[in-house]
Amino acid sequence: MLQLEAKLLGSPTIKINGDSIDFPYKKVEALFYYIVVKKKVSRIKIASLLWGDMLDGKAKKNLRNALYQLKKVVGKGIINTPDRSTISICEDCQLDLDIDVFLNEEGEEAIEVYKGEFLNSFLIKNAPDFTDWIFEQRNYYLQLYIKTLRNYSKQLEVKEEFQQAIYYLKLLIEVDEFNEVAYRDLMGLYAKQGSIAKSVDIYKELEEQLHSELGITPDKKTVNLLQNIRERISHDINSNDDKKDEYIFRRDELDILINNLSRFLNDKSSASISVFGEAGIGKTTLVKQALSAIELKDSLILKANCFQAEERYIFKPWKIILQQLKKKVDFNDIDISLPWKKIISFLFPSLLIEEEEVLSEEMFSFESIQCQSATEALLFLLTEIAKNQKLILVFEDLQWCDDKSLFLLKNLIQESKNNNILIVMTSRNERKNRIENIFLDLKRHNYINEINLSRLSLSEVQKFANNSLSSYEFPEELVTKIYDETEGNTFFLVETLNLLKSKGKDQALSNLLTDKSKDILRNRVQSVSKEAQNILKLASICFDKVSYELLLDISGKNDFELIDLLEELQEYYLIEEMLSERNGSPAYKFTHSKIREFIYNHQSFSRVKLLHKRIAQFIEQNLQQGVRNRDQYAKLIYHYSKAGDKLKHLEYLIKESEIYFHHTHELFPITSDKSLEKDQIISFNQEGAHRYLTEISSLLEEVEQEVSENLVIREMKVKFLRMQAQFLISEGDYSTAIDTIQNMISEARNVDDWLSILRGYQQMAGLGVQKEEVTFIEDNAERMYSLAEEMEKDVEMAIALRFLGIAKLYQRNYQASERLFKNSLQIFKDAETLGKKYTLGIAVIYNYLGEVKRYERKFEEAINFYRRGISLCKSQNINWGLGIFHVNAGQVFFELEEYDKARTYFNNSLEIFKKLKTIWGYSAISNGFMSLLSIQRQDYEKAYDYLITAEETVKQYHKRYWLGILLRIKAEIAKEMKENGELAKVFKGYLNEDYSKYAKDALSILEEIGADYEIELVDNLS
């Protein structure tokens, strides 16, 4: 018989018949370790863990190759592949695995086996799921080792074997250096030995450790123990008079959480708490117990759950928190500034009742808000509320939280420092590293404390069972059976004991434990009627909660039948009722995610697909006509994708993407004021945009391969190409963008999508402005005008005339340019008589009329036009474009030598650009002129910073005019450096060319694209 010896605790070693084994590469080694630990594994599962980033076919191929290599190394007698779905260790092989010994033994025998972390120093690349499994196992065995050490030291203490107990406590502290409970136990043991001085030394060692590493002092319990030891008083500091003598589960962790909450409520130093552990380990229960154990005087508790299916939707958990807050707090009593009020209402439209109707007309991209601005606004709102009542915010399943919400959470903790606002978070172990990395600085500064919940050991399972069923005597064999079935997971343990309790004495308890944990849940579900089980199956298809209306529509039950079944399910504590946030009607959710997952995963594939499709159709039927709702689109995408309906999946993915891309690329978007008010701080997030385009492209390709090309697919392709062009424009890839737009126009012609063709011409003309190519602008603007006229699209005709006016401005045909701008202006004004207001469209024309006058050197007239545009935008609280108007006005005041006014306008523009992520490079002009203005005030260092910023901005874009202005400013500074030694000291390492060279380069650009006065000014410099 082959003897396989595997040591996985510490640096892993594998021996077969005494000979060490070397593996050909890491993933073969990883595969073997996983098989050894699990004994029998699914091919699909291990392929997903090791090659989850690959397509199924490639992953399976890699697995087959790895298995072949593994069998070559260990021989055929070790690995068994009985069928095409499983891999196992051969039954004929004698396996000596240290983990098995560690789990099955207790006390000294178990401790001796633990030689270090599970698979110490072993990691593999490009297998994040396998890495997560390693870290989960490491944490599990480490926590079990710590508990074993403490329990064994307690046993030795009872036997008065103090020296041995001290030895094992020191081992505990070696692996958990900040474990104050262990330090207290150690101090107590030395005190019992009469070594008071040694106890004090241990305290000082702890005090130094906490101060140097964490910057904190020992816990009050530890301080009290030291005082008691000094007075030689035997005192059990772990006793708590407020608790009964009964077994308190998770007592240490519960004490930490309760103590922290109490400190927070009593205005003492406290920390936000993150509770980590696998699903079903008791995170939510722990938090509930802690919150119920303290008196929540003058405080509000707000809770939000995060769901995997909603991870891509930013700020979703915060939306839930603020919806709860709205019900408990009158926001009208809070004096919040208009900008912050707008930011909050844009992010969370339902908070402002008076704007709900307007905001529901058209959703907008949450990517719009600068994270810092959102944090400041939200922090102010929460801080104001917390002045009257403390806030405890609970976030469940943070591993599914979107990045924006996590960073908002991080900033909130950092800014509030846990004063009047405390965060309690739970998270599964998977993706724990992501959460920890985001909160690393907060943990380092003690703004967050971490609680890790591990599985129960065999002895803890016995204690828990005895406490839960005190009337029954559990033989050792049965306890072991319970432990094996539940694997120490508290959820399954509770379910098992409930099952035993419900069956009563009519059946031997030991006979009830013949199935695995999944069958524990099966028994729970089968305890209700078949009709109720069908309702559970339907409800499990929804990942969060399910509405009463949906259940009524799809189940085919009448109201009375459905209510009876729902009440039955609530009686068995399988679901719980809640009110829908939307209309106040009932909604239902599972009492635990594991119940939902079990029911969902144990339905046939065909049933699941059908139910997903029926639910999607129900949501689709209830969409408001003409209203774009991202929340509903998200659910439709989820259900249609699970239903395998790729065409519908693609349809709603494109609809959602169109919301995301809405106006984000345009310099001056033309839309009604109502829409623009909501869109004004939208920005273009490249990562999110790229993700959408990649998903759509992949899905579109699949649909084209599986479905014969039809009108619907062609229309979707046109929409995709239009969004792709927007993305390419924002990336500055103008050449590819032009090719894409031309392709889009060609495809649009095939489906008679003339509106998309019109938008294509508009995009092309806009690209011409960006590239400063006059002929390109004119050709596309003329095509746009002709088509808009044919389609009777007045506003688009006005936009086309505006483009033609810009082309004439570049050609210095000022009279024609002014005429075209005025014609455009009149069309906008006429369009407003039909009910919609186009404030920005009109303001932009005033800006360009100002540009005509600036080019003509009629500066006073130019100022009047700029001011009219600025005034119009301010009257409607529109920021989009406002920064550019300020830039142009600042330039004119600079040429008029009214430098204070110029400085004001340039500063205003920079403030606006700072709020908006859509800078479009115009800040380069403001920063350049601010450099000259700073030199006037002899603030040369600041002038240097402004100029560097201007140059960095110009490098990101392709506008020759901005470069010409920058070179002109460099020429002026370089010329003054010849007369100003202090100025030269600051700029000498940067401006190392003669001023005439800068002037000459500026002139070559401005002669093509600049104003006459600018050419003259630079010509005089050279």
From TrEMBL:
Keyword DNA repair attached: no
Coiled coil feature spans: none
Keywords, in A-Z order: ATP-binding, Nucleotide-binding, TPR repeat
Annotated SMART domains: BTAD, TPR
UniProt domain Bacterial transcriptional activator: residue ranges: 97-230
KW ATP-binding (keyword) present: yes
GO molecular function: adenylate cyclase activity; ATP binding
Gene3D superfamilies linked: P-loop containing nucleotide triphosphate hydrolases (3.40.50.300), Tetratricopeptide repeat domain (1.25.40.10), Winged helix-like DNA-binding domain superfamily/Winged helix DNA-binding domain (1.10.10.10)
TPR repeat boundaries on the chain: 843-876
One GO cellular component term noted in the UniProt record for this chain: cytoplasm
Name this protein carries in UniProt: Predicted ATPase
Organism: Selenihalanaerobacter shriftii
